[in-house]
Amino acid sequence: MNNVARLIAAIFIIGSCACGSIPKAGPVSTQEVSPKKRIEIPSAKKAIKTQPRLELPAITDSEDIVTHIGFTASYNHETLIPNWVAYELTREEVNGSEKGDESFQWDPDIKGRQAWREDYARSGWDKGHMIPRADLKWSAKAYSESFYFSNVCPQDPAFNTGSWRTTESMGRRLAKQYGSVFIVCGPLVFDNKYGTLGEHKVVIPDAFFKAFLICVNGEYSAIGIIMDNIPEKQNLKQCAMSVDEVEDKCGLDLFHDLDISIQSAVESRINWKMWGI
Q: How confident is the model over 171-214, as pLDDT tens digits?
């Protein structure tokens, strides 16, 4: 092979490698891709995990659903934030001590538009976890997956480390107390008073919801919480409401797999003595 041929071959190899590499900051493809509902895959975190998946809301055909070992999410390719994130947290998992990669990155199981790290840069808004990394210390892989943008929303920094954190602590406390808690949470966009951030126009939520479901001695209880995306401290009890009230705000059918014979009673009232707030 002469020198010219060697040069051409080297350029071809280098070009192929460069085109084939995928940065960790964004989606595999920036092309518009019509979201499709994925086949629901049972969580792999425990072989004994039972069906139905009580943490899940009702899922529509238009949603792009992704299931990781620690959580399930519905991702919105228009707002570039999740519609909701759902998971079960157990007493054993709360006691985990594993940690993994802490770099925010595109979710490799989502094809289509996602937020970019650069969208958040110098924006004044945090990359707020829906399922907190502290809930996923039972697995280094699960911990790392919490940094996927399928689990991230823009949050006021003081809210992220203050009021929102109190809801996260509440989840871990309930898991320790009752052995298991089903949790679903997500953003609420009402007037979109904060607009968007970054070149890709990531929608900034006006508020966030979280709902908890527990089972004690065969009886289910549930509670919902809605907090504004603001720096001022918010009280858990003052932000608490029935799951029915949360559903009215978020437009979702939460805890959809709860037996229909008890769903209305469980979601319409709060048994305050169960929640410690």
A: 999 999 999 999 999 999 999 999 999 999 999 999 999 999 99
Work out the end-to-end distance of the chain between its first and last CA atoms, rounded to an integer number of angstroms.
77
- Of the candidates 33, 30, 74, the residue with the CA atom closest to the CA atom of residue 55: 74
**Cα–Cα distance for residue pair 84/185, rounded to 1 Å:** 6
How large is the C-alpha radius of gyration of the chain? 21
DSSP for 57-120, please give it.
PP--TT-EEEE-SS-EEEEETTTTEEEEEEEEEEHHHHT---------B--TT--S----HHHH
Number of domains in the chain: 1
Whole-angstrom Cα distance, residue 6 to residue 31?
Answer: 35
Supply the pTM of this predicted model.
0.83
Domain of residue 11, CATH code: 3.40.570.10
Q: Residue 48: helix, strand or coil by DSSP?
A: coil
Residue 51 has a pLDDT of 62
- 116: amino acid identity, one letter: W
Top-confidence residue, 3 or 188? 188
Range of the domain at 236: 3-274
Q: Is it the case that residue 48 has pLDDT exceeding 50?
A: no
C-alpha distances (whole Å) from 235 to each of 88, 168, 227 are 24, 14, 9
Tokens 């976890």 appear where? 129
